[in-house]
TrEMBL record:
Family note: Belongs to the PNP/MTAP phosphorylase family. MTAP subfamily.
Site residues (Important for substrate specificity), renumbered to this chain: 167, 222
Entry protein name: S-methyl-5'-thioadenosine phosphorylase
Annotated binding of substrate, by residue: 185, 209-211
Complex and partners: Homohexamer. Dimer of a homotrimer.
Length: 292
């Protein structure tokens, strides 16, 4: 049992966490390069929240240039116990209309060329990822969103594309045939890296558009997406307040908190010193007590 500390990754249209008590903006260095920006840490009631804007303030970073490793590393360094990501998503299903929320539970990764692991080169780990989303946090976040007044779909498969362009119509139809429900550009490798950092991850998507499969005339565009996101940003922020109010007083341990115990395949006497040095936060629970 322990305290909750929720890391929030704010996506398109959500560049500020809203009112946090005792809020402080802090620049935290990462061993994996430049994060998207400083974090804002503060409390809602008894629960600590630490927020980072995924694309940076002013939306400077495209999905391909977000340093996902640095962002997760920084949140881990801040001591977060769980991550709630908030994203703009396109809908691939008629029933998931713009303005509704989706608590994503599965992911398909179509991104290319992004750094997708903290490990390799001197210390190899293979974490299980069959269920990339933490059902506990996802359920709590979905309930919080409902209490805040949102219509929430409690599961959905998200296909992560590389972007930055939106999909072709043929791709959009293909993803629907694959069983994807929603589409975005950022949940991968974010979810992979959260798992490697032993952080339960949940993703609350806000549907902003129907991508391009549905209507031959009205294709997705960024202006419409941002209008929906702006209209929903306060709703997203009130989800955080509701979440803080509804979290159990004590946080029960999750199997994800110790997932590296079953994932690191390289024996400690072969661990590379340089690799270890930058894993001091992500795998700090394991590597800091190892004699080198
Ligand atoms: C602004 S439209 C496309 C952009 O929005 C989504 O970002 P995020 O997941 O950070 O909310 C999508 O993944 C694209 O990056
Ligand atoms: N249709 C779409 N495709 C990819 N990313 C998105 N983010 C919001 N809408 C999207």
């Amino acid at each position: 049992m322990g305290q909750w500390h929720i890391g929030v990754i704010g996506g398109s249209g959500l560049y500020e966490p809203g009112a946090l008590e005792d809020a402080q903006e802090i620049a935290v260095n990462s061993a994996f390069g430049e994060p998207s920006g400083p974090v804002t840490t503060g409390r809602i009631g008894n629960v600590r929240f630490t927020f980072i804007a995924r694309h940076g303030k002013g939306h400077r970073l495209s999905p391909s240039h977000v340093n996902f490793r640095a962002n997760i590393d920084v949140l881990k360094r801040c001591g977060v116990t769980d991550i709630l990501a908030i994203s703009a998503i396109g809908s691939l299903q008629e029933t998931m209309a713009p303005g509704t929320f989706v608590a994503v539970d599965q992911l398909i990764d179509r991104t290319v060329g992004r750094d997708r692991s903290f490990f390799g080169n001197g210390i190899v780990a293979h974490v299980p990822l069959a269920d990339p989303v933490c059902p506990r946090l996802s359920g709590l976040a979905a309930s919080a969103a409902e209490q805040a007044g949102a219509t929430v779909h409690r599961c959905g498969t998200y296909v992560a594309i590389e972007g930055p362009q939106f999909s072709t119509r043929a791709e959009s139809h293909l993803y629907r045939q694959w069983g994807a429900d929603v589409i975005g550009m950022t949940a991968m490798p974010e979810a992979r890296l959260a798992r490697e950092a032993e952080l339960p991850y949940a993703l609350l998507g806000m549907v902003t558009d129907y991508d391009c499969w549905r209507d031959e005339k009205a294709d997705v565009d960024v202006t419409d997406i941002l209008a929906v996101m702006r209209a929903n940003a306060d709703l997203a922020r009130s989800c955080l307040t509701r979440l803080a109010q509804s979290l159990p007083d004590e946080r029960e341990a999750s199997p994800i908190d110790t997932i590296l115990d079953i994932a690191i395949i390289t024996p400690p006497d072969h661990w590379d010193k340089q690799a270890l040095a930058r894993l001091d936060a992500v795998a700090g629970r394991i590597v800091t007590n190892v004699p080198v």
